[in-house]
Amino acid sequence: MSGIIDHAVLTALAATGFYLFFLGAWDSVPLAAGLAFLCVGLLRGLLRARPPRRRPSMAAVRGELLRLSGLSDTEAQEQLSALVRTRWPEEDFDLAPVLKHPEATLSSGDLLNAWKGNRTSTRLAVCATCPAEPRALAYARELREPAVAVVDSRALARILRRTLPPDAPPPLPSPRQRLHALAARVAGSRVTPRNALLAGALLMLYLRGGNPLCLFGALAMLAHIGIAIAQRRVGKRLFEV
Fold first, then answer.
1. Where does the pLDDT of residue 149 fall: very low under 50, low under 70, confident under 90, or very high at 90 and above?
2. 105: left (phi over 0), alpha (psi -120 to 50) or beta
3. Could you say which DSSP state residue 117 is in?
4. Is it true that the peptide bond before 166 is cis, omega within 30 degrees of 0?
């Protein structure tokens, strides 16, 4: 429902803006209304013809790279070969997987071992689930029989961004979840003795002048201090058990 209301408000604002622009340009109400209606229709048509393109998040891509790094050699050979050939479908090559953690690096030694294990190939794509070191990339250009091309995690990430399904939009948080998130942010902020002094000063100002804003500010700061202290106590209990 909120999306419909937002769409209606934006449409009304756009129509009003176009109407005022054309009215100031030609000083004709019928002409301004007609042109504003036409411009709003064209704008809506363009927006519908080119919907925003959603892609998987980088967190999803990193998760997929981590999953691939934990596969067996046979499974990784099949899945990485199918994935890489979606990018280069017309080229003929063999693929050698190098399964390492995405935060590791592909070294020249890793590249040499993959090349030695596939000397019967004509062309070899060394596919790594981690980024390649610059020296390894330079060394790959020197290897012959077979010639070697490196497909590291950066190239795989670009392929995965086009092949993985887009992330589902996150669900709207409930009022209770929003309240919990607000309490977590308040508890996570730093509390110093200055906060207690300021709360006491506001409370004294309220007692002397009766300004309700001072009372509200003092109570808010005291609640902030109380939530932070409660959170710290909960954290300590974990280590005391």
1. very high
2. beta
3. T
4. no
- Looking at the predicted structure, is the pLDDT value of residue 73 above 80? yes
Q: Coil, strand or helix: which one is 178?
A: helix
* Tokens at 96, concatenated: 């050698």
Question: pLDDT by residue (tens digit) across 10-31?
Answer: 666 667 777 777 776 667 777 7
Q: What element of type H or E holds 124?
A: strand 123-128
Give the residue from 89, 96, 134, 137 showing the smallest Cα distance to 113. 96
- Cβ distance 126 to 140 under 8 Å? yes
Pick from 60, 52, 85, 50: which is nearest to 161 by CA? 60
Residue in 146, 91, 96, 144 with CA at minimum distance from that of residue 120: 146
What is the chain's mean pLDDT, rounded? Answer: 77
Pick from 146, 162, 149, 168: which is nearest to 83 by CA? 162
Using a 10 angstrom Cβ sphere, with 0-12 exposed, 13-18 middle and 19 or more buried, the burial of residue 215 is middle
pLDDT tens profile 211-240: 776 666 677 777 767 766 665 554 444 444
Question: At residue 32, what is the residue type?
Answer: A
State the first-to-last Cα distance of the chain, in angstroms, to the nearest integer.
49
User: Is the CB of residue 99 less than 8 Å from the CB of residue 129?
Assistant: yes
Token pair recorded at residue 125: 């794509």
Distances (CA, A) of 156 to 16, 82, 138: 48, 12, 19
Residues 6+ apart with CB under 8 A from 112: 139
